[in-house]
Design a protein that fits this description.
The protein is α/β, with parallel strands linked by helices. It is built from six helices and seven strands. Strands 3-2-1-4-5-6-7 form a seven-stranded parallel beta sheet, sandwiched between helices. Strand 1, helix 1 and strand 2 form a beta-alpha-beta unit. Helix 3 packs parallel to helix 4. The longest helix has 28 residues.
């Protein structure tokens, strides 16, 4: 119970990686506020996990909504010591074909949402005496991918924003790190086949729980790490495994 008495907010926490992170933090004793726009799934998760987990609706692009969520977390559980910016969307299209409004929407959710979250939560992190922010980026924050210009741009930018936040928040005892999942079996990757992972060193999709294990480690044990990238991708960003001779 390494997080007993600590309060955490997890965005995009209703399903997939977010839900796995909620479970992992709650298992360590944290009091977790789950946020999402998927109200039914978020409420179901909170009901399942019991009294130390609550749900609040949050569109991460809504600055006022962020203020309300942080205030709710403090009222119910106490000052926030852990923030996991996990909410994200993906929209496909080449640079030539993707409509500008689609590109901007991806940036608003994946990047501006995390920025708003850190701004809104920092005073609470100070009141908690410090803590940890984990920004869920992607291997798309390390590499380029075709047909994913908005997503790649948002995840590279989130990686850079993490480093700036790590420098600015250090004086308050707040560590800020980024996690870069590769192909993970979630609703977002539901239409992708196993051929996507066939040539990577660990030739399978990862599970949300494997990403959550990294987040748990970063929050509870990686006390000398800040501004750093942590990759959970089965080696996908390393390169392609050569075929057997």
């Amino acid at each position: 119970m390494r997080l007993a008495g600590k309060t955490a907010i997890v965005t995009g926490g209703a399903r997939g990686i977010g839900a796995a992170v909620v479970r992992a933090l709650a298992a360590e004793g944290a009091r977790v506020l789950v946020t999402d726009v998927l109200d039914d799934e978020g409420k179901h998760l909170a009901d399942e996990l019991g009294g130390n987990v609550a749900y609040r609706h949050l569109d991460v692009t809504d600055e006022a909504g962020w203020r309300e969520v942080v205030a709710a977390a403090e009222r119910e559980f106490g000052p926030v010591a852990v923030l996991v910016n996990n909410a994200g969307i993906v929209e496909f299209g080449t640079i030539e074909a993707q409509p500008p409004e689609s590109f901007r929407r991806v940036l608003e959710v994946n990047l501006v949402g995390a920025w708003l979250g850190m701004r809104a939560t920092l005073p609470s992190l100070r009141r908690a005496g410090g803590g940890c922010v984990v920004n869920i980026s992607s291997t798309a924050g390390l590499l380029g991918y075709t047909n994913l210009g908005g997503y790649v741009a948002s995840k590279w930018a989130l990686r850079g924003l993490t480093k700036t936040a790590a420098l600015e928040f250090a004086r308050d005892g707040v560590r800020v790190v980024s996690v870069h999942p590769g192909p993970i079996r979630t609703p977002m990757t539901g239409g992708m086949g196993d051929e996507l992972t066939a040539d990577q060193p660990i030739a399978r999709f990862g599970e949300p729980e494997e990403v959550a294990a990294m987040v748990r480690f970063l929050v509870t044990e990686a006390t000398y790490s800040t501004g750093t990238e942590f990759v959970v991708d089965g080696g996908a960003a390393t390169g392609v495994v050569a075929p057997a001779a």
